[in-house]
Design a protein that fits this description.
heterodimer, A: alpha/beta, four-stranded antiparallel sheet, 10 helices, B: mainly alpha, ABC transporter involved in vitamin B12 uptake, BtuC, two-stranded antiparallel sheet, 11 helices, transport (chain B), amino-acid transport (chain B), membrane (chain B), L-valine transmembrane transporter activity (chain B)
Chain lengths: 237, 291
């Protein structure tokens, strides 16, 4: 589905990513974990074309997207739910969801309606608030809105950047349940998390990112019991 | 009393034109994310386009309106290509200074091409005067208010009911999020910029009809009025900017009732300063902002 080969990214003189290679298979949940400044968000931004790559190649769904404009990559069916949600603050919840459909010109009116129903069914709270401004929602609701907006374009794959950031544990659990449901609906998920134990417990495979390099990889369960991961990210010996 | 009422009518009419300028200005600023100083020149070009249409094709107001809109649209495209597109990721003051320079260029080119004299724009609309009780309303004023209202309604429908309008609003709120939902931000920003400029052009035409004259340097005062109105409305909020324009028009005309007409601008800007002292972000209430 998605293949990164030897991706390097520079911010000015600072090299943020040093030759990252990873692979996401169809209908998998893949998680990328790592500490602050490890390059997780940069990896996602380089996939969706928001930062320039110094080196390497990215292929999505069999097409080379390395130098493609961000909006074109989205149109191939790759949704990116950014860190910090980024809902449109003065658009209503309904309008926010509808902006999601702008990324997929192939959607028919009926299909859009269907997708909207799906999101409302999955996130009932959004339906209650559909005429409220996006910026007036709570953090958890905004996160749900951001995910639902990504799903509105009926993507093949969705990338989530720290969906649990700053949310109460109970909401985090709800969001992780949603992520499993998204995969069960036939979508591929690339998940970036600081909450490593949660992420690894639902992931098929995981990559550990440190200082812009991938240092470890394995199935979610393997990484959960890996001593190195335990020491660095799970906080128990 | 009669005089004040009539001045109020004049104020509303003038305010309607300012409102239209401010609407155009807010659309441009919102969608490009940068302050523009070419708006006055855009309006001037609109006025001249309609002037030449009136001269060669007769006094057809609709034709003039379309011409003004189209000419300003094209100038808007130029402004976008020259002043914004390359500097999208650069610091904002670069394109700001670029718009200042571009406005000087356009203004001086206009003086060369159109001449430095004032041009008369006479009898575009038959100058009938209606009397309602003590109030006198001229046909021109009615036409101006009708055109402004019609455009405002059209624009509201476009922004709130169409997918293209929604994309425009999304771009003006958060450009990086707009990229991520698959909006082609640059194209949308250009169209938004052109729509704003086109509306400015129509406002310029109305100004020329109202004052029965147009000239190459008319843009500078107009752009100050558009800018102030838009600041009153919180820069990017279209509705509040329109309200700001209306207020400035009314204040100006009521102000000169009590003093001389040369204090017109003084009243406008004093009002602006007073409002900003009391409400630093203008009239607008940030919708969707959590306290």
């Amino acid at each position: 589905m998605l293949e990164l080969t030897n991706i390097s990214v520079n911010y000015g003189y600072i090299q943020a990513l040093h030759g990252i290679s990873m692979e996401v298979g169809k209908n998998e949940i893949i998680t990328l974990i790592g500490g602050n400044g490890a390059g997780k968000t940069t990896t996602l931004m380089s996939i969706s074309g928001l930062v320039e790559k110094a080196e390497g190649r990215i292929a999505f769904d069999g097409k080379d997207v390395t130098k493609m404009a961000p909006e074109k990559i989205v149109k191939l069916g790759l949704a990116h739910v950014p860190e910090g949600r980024k809902v449109f603050p003065s658009l209503t919840v309904y309008e926010n969801l509808m902006t999601g459909t702008l990324g997929n010109p192939k959607l028919t009116k009926e299909r859009i309606k269907e997708l909207l129903e799906q999101q409302y069914e999955m996130f009932p709270r959004l339906k209650e608030r559909q005429n409220q401004a996006g910026g007036s929602l709570s953090g958890g609701e905004q996160q749900m809105l951001a995910i639902a907006r990504g799903l509105m374009m009926d993507p093949k794959m969705i990338m989530l950047d720290e969906p649990s950031l700053g949310l109460a544990p109970i909401i985090v659990e709800e969001i992780f349940n949603m992520i499993c449901r998204i995969r069960n609906n036939g979508k591929t998920v690339l998940l970036i998390e600081q909450n490593a134990s949660m992420a690894l417990s639902i992931a098929d495979r995981g990559y550990v990112l440190e200082n812009g390099k991938i240092t470890l990889t394995g199935s979610g369960k393997e990484l959960l019991v890996n001593d190195e991961v335990k020491r660095a990210y799970l906080g128990d010996y | 009393m009669e005089y004040i009422l009539n001045q109020l009518i004049n104020g509303v009419c003038q305010g309607a034109i300012y409102a239209l300028m401010a609407i155009g200005y807010s659309v441009v600023v919102g969608v490009t994310g940068m302050v523009t100083f070419t708006h006055g020149e855009v309006m001037m070009i609109g006025a001249f386009a309609s002037f030449y249409i009136f001269q060669y094709a007769g006094s057809h107001i609709v034709l003039g309106l379309l011409g003004a809109f189209a000419a300003s649209w094209i100038l808007g495209m130029l402004v976008y290509k020259i002043c914004y597109e390359h500097f999208f990721n650069a610091p904002r003051h670069i394109s700001l200074i670029c718009t200042v320079g571009f406005s000087m260029l356009v203004q001086n080119l206009a003086q060369i091409c159109f001449g430095a004299n004032k041009k008369p724009v006479l009898n575009i609309i038959e100058n009938r005067v209606f009397k309602i009780g003590p109030v006198r309303i001229s046909m021109i004023q009615v036409a101006i208010v009708v055109i402004v209202l019609a455009l405002a309604v059209l624009l509201t429908v476009y922004f709130n009911r169409t997918r293209a309008g929604m994309a425009l609003r999304a771009v003006s709120q958060d450009k990086s999020a707009a990229y991520l939902v698959g909006i082609s931000v640059k194209k949308t920003a250009m169209i938004g910029n052109c729509i704003g400029c086109g509306i400015g052009g129509v406002a310029g035409m109305l100004m020329a009809i109202y004052y029965q004259t147009c000239y190459a340097t008319m843009g500078s005062t107009m752009s100050m009025k558009a800018f102030s109105s838009s600041v009153l409305g919180g820069m990017t909020d279209v509705r509040f900017s329109a309200l700001g324009g209306l207020c400035i028009g009314v204040i100006e005309n009521l102000g000169i009732t009590f003093s001389s007409a040369s204090f017109r601008d003084a009243f406008a800007f004093c009002f602006l300063i007073l409002v900003l002292i009391i409400r630093p972000h203008g009239f607008s209430v940030k919708k969707g902002a959590r306290p």
